[in-house]
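Researcher: We plan to redesign the surface later, but first we want a full-length starting point. Tokens attached.
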């Protein structure tokens, strides 16, 4: 009872249970005696080899993720919400991608849906936003079009407009003290814009300029897309980061936008169907008119 919340369960104790049935002795008669002694382990290894062609030595290099079982499903007596694992950040990635596919006419500007990895640990690695993948890809496209030189690449990146699609924290009536009700996202009020994120106020975040926000407001208002603005909780009581600041390093106009999520980072997260639909509509008109 005297431990801090972060110490109640130590990270090294977060083991998972994957089996309890031992293999039949006759099935393992030819196995090593030590393996046969641990008959539950032997049975699990047999299942892994049979279903997934994974041997014990493959665990040295394998990347295996264990997530809650079950598909996303309706939530609430009115079925107005969706409960699912990993809404952060599948619930923003999916409408972003579908918005680009559903454009009926070619937009004036080139549309890009960039899905990156490892945002929760600092956007590092070859698949994170801090890699030069997007910059290099843009250079390759310009080279193929016969238009590449370093200044042109810099100008192309700096003249880009971006919605950094990431979730925001929804108002939780069970824990109202962590939010400012005048600056928090609510279910059913549409796409969420976070002018800035970060911790202890704006530390470590992008801070979108007023002109860009006004441009986006105009586009959404003209197309009757519902949207709201919010912060990620009270100052000094949390916060979070996205990839927006990395894109802003290129001089891009960028703002965080996405869907409000309740129970963020829990095994099952909750979002509003209305907010998801309005986010999709917002992304479509952004690609058309921004």
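Model: Full-length starting sequence:
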């Amino acid at each position: 009872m005297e431990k801090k919340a972060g110490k109640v369960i130590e990270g090294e104790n977060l083991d998972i249970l994957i089996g309890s049935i031992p293999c039949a002795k006759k099935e393992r008669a030819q196995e090593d005696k030590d393996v046969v002694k641990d008959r539950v382990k032997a049975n699990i290894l047999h299942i892994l080899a049979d279903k997934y062609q994974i041997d014990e030595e493959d665990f040295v290099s394998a990347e295996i993720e264990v997530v809650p079982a079950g598909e996303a499903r309706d939530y609430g007596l009115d079925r107005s919400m969706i409960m699912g694992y990993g809404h952060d950040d599948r619930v923003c990635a999916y409408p972003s991608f579908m918005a680009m596919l559903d454009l009926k006419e070619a937009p004036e500007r080139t549309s890009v849906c960039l899905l990156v990895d490892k945002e929760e640990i600092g956007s590092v690695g070859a698949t994170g936003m801090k890699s030069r993948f997007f910059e290099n890809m843009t250079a390759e496209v310009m080279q193929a079009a016969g238009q590449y030189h370093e200044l042109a690449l810099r100008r192309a990146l700096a003249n880009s407009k971006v919605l950094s699609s990431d979730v925001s924290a929804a108002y939780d009536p069970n824990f109202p003290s962590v939010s400012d009700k005048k600056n928090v996202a609510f279910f059913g009020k549409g796409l969420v814009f976070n002018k800035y994120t970060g911790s202890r106020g704006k530390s470590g975040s992008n801070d979108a300029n007023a002109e860009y926000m006004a441009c986006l407001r105009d586009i959404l208002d003209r197309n009757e897309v519902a949207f709201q603005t919010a912060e990620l909780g009270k100052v000094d009581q949390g916060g979070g980061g996205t990839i927006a600041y990395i894109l802003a390093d290129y001089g891009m106009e960028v703002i965080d936008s996405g869907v409000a999520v309740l129970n963020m980072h829990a095994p099952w997260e909750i979002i509003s169907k209305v907010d998801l639909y309005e986010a999709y509509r917002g992304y479509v008109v952004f690609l058309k008119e921004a």
